[in-house]
């Protein structure tokens, strides 16, 4: 019997309910006898089912069923959502996610930490994971000891906890770049101190204005995404990073450097701000959600000693400690070298998509639009020509089969722009990038013609 026939038979048994989630499959020897084939044929069939995530292997135990509800895959393939070119969803590329590799890491973590799962763990995070994280951070030019690393349940938790802490400088106001991701805007809406914005535009931000804020506004910390900013995709230059560090030291201000997509930066010459500040003035925060699995919900913060006690108390109130099992799995993933291989693939995927996107922008967007440029990461923005509004354009484009994200809620009220849309390339296949941008360009022209009666000629 060919291995494809074994795969088909087992899938049918799963659909009929004869094999239920959690059921153990026959051993390779037993299955070879039942199907009248060689063991290698069974191994190949089981390997194919593993690749499809329908079964999983437990070391020293065997193979188990992990299939989803009958018909789910068929239903998904027929979903009308497949006809939408989705530039809105900002999760990582599903087709590139390391499901199978991470499944093995979870199984290993269960074996490694099965006794520890019956007790509470350290609020700072597993010591063995923090050791692996310190090794991983070296590749990002973040040199720190495991003692200064704090594992958090996603980087958003670190930001929430830090915003509520009293800092050693005794100050209370916050400066945040504009625009900024929605989570930070919502976090700061109820902040008791004053929140000041500073525009982050092509060419960087106004460092003289930043110095004025640091000098005159009693600033506790400045929050910035130093690489592949959300939503613009911009990155600070090394010169700008150095200048910001000097200003922070001069005016006794802390900087929270969010490097949530720093792993995607393949240029070894790009340094984080943390590399320029040995004094602990820079608080380094990163997440694994955008480059790996959002459901993992793990991130880290590198903190100065002066924030240690307050941060640990606040984290204990929030969730006692981050999930032990996912911590252990991430430790195995880093330790094994799987993460390094995965990031290499992700860098290539997003670099290729970014090049295609920028080419499509130049070819299809009408005069009067402006777009941000990023050749890595996966966010960019389009600033629409007046008098178009982002929500109107988004609604119109949805009718053309393209979904985009109106970006007005990514600004503080004083900086709010109604004519900016954000695009993410993470869920869009390469072949659909140009048709998607062409549809956006045509949709903008249609709305402008309706508003102004002006006919626009397409480029090229």
Automatic annotation (TrEMBL):
Residue ranges constituting the HTH gntR-type domain according to the UniProt record:
1-68
Report the cofactors. pyridoxal 5'-phosphate
Listed Gene3D superfamilies: Type I PLP-dependent aspartate aminotransferase-like (Major domain), Winged helix-like DNA-binding domain superfamily/Winged helix DNA-binding domain
Recorded hits in SMART domains, A to Z, give: HTH_GNTR
This protein's UniProt keywords = Aminotransferase, DNA-binding, Pyridoxal phosphate, Transcription, Transcription regulation, Transferase
Which Pfam family, any one of them, does this sequence belong to?
Answer: Aminotran_1_2
Query: Matching CDD domains, A to Z?
Result: AAT_like, WHTH_GntR
Q: Name one GO molecular function term.
A: transaminase activity
Give the protein family: In the C-terminal section; belongs to the class-I pyridoxal-phosphate-dependent aminotransferase family.
Which PANTHER family does this UniProt record tie to the protein? HTH-TYPE TRANSCRIPTIONAL REGULATORY PROTEIN GABR (PTHR46577)
Q: From the Swiss-Prot or TrEMBL record, give the protein name.
A: PLP-dependent aminotransferase family protein
């Amino acid at each position: 019997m060919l291995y494809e026939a074994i795969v088909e038979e087992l899938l049918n048994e799963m659909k009929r309910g004869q094999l239920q989630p959690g059921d153990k499959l026959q051993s390779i020897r037993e299955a070879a006898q039942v199907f009248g084939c060689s063991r290698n044929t069974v191994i190949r069939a089981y390997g194919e089912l593993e690749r499809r995530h329908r079964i999983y292997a437990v070391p020293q135990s065997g193979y188990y069923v992990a299939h989803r509800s009958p018909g789910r895959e068929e239903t998904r393939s027929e979903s009308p959502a497949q006809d939408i070119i989705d530039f809105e969803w900002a999760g990582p590329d599903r087709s590139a996610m390391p499901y199978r590799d991470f499944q093995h890491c979870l199984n290993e973590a269960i074996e490694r930490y099965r006794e520890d799962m019956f007790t509470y763990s350290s609020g700072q995070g597993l010591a063995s994971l923090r050791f692996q994280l310190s090794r991983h951070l070296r590749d990002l030019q973040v040199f720190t000891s495991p003692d200064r690393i704090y594992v958090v349940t996603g980087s958003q938790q670190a930001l929430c906890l830090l915003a509520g802490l009293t800092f050693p400088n005794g100050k209370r106001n916050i400066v945040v770049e504009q625009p900024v991701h929605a989570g930070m805007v919502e976090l700061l809406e109820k902040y008791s101190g004053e929140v000041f914005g500073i525009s982050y535009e092509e060419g960087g931000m106004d460092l003289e204005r930043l110095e004025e804020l640091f000098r005159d506004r009693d600033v506790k910390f400045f929050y910035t995404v130093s690489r592949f900013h959300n939503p613009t995709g911009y990155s600070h230059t090394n010169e700008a990073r150095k200048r910001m560090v000097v200003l922070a030291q001069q005016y006794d201000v802390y900087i929270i450097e969010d490097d949530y997509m720093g792993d995607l930066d393949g240029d070894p010459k790009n340094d984080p701000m943390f590399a320029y500040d040995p004094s602990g003035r820079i608080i380094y925060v990163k997440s694994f959600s955008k480059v790996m699995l959002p459901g993992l919900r793990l991130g880290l913060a590198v903190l100065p000693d002066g924030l240690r006690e307050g941060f640990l108390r606040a984290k204990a109130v929030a969730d006692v400690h981050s999930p032990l099992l996912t911590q252990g799995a991430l430790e195995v993933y880093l330790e094994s070298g799987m993460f390094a291989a995965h990031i290499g693939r992700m860098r290539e995927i997003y670099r290729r998509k970014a090049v295609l996107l920028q080419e499509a922008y130049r070819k299809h967007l009408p005069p009067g639009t402006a777009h941000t440029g990023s050749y890595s990461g996966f966010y960019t923005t389009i600033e629409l020509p007046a008098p178009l509004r982002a929500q109107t354009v988004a609604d119109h484009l949805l009718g053309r089969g393209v979904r985009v994200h109106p970006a007005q809620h990514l600004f503080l009220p004083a900086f709010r722009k109604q004519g900016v849309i954000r695009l993410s390339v993470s869920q869009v296949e390469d072949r659909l990038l140009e048709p998607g941008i062409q549809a956006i360009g045509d949709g903008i022209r249609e709305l402008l013609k309706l508003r102004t009666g002006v006919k626009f000629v397409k480029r090229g």
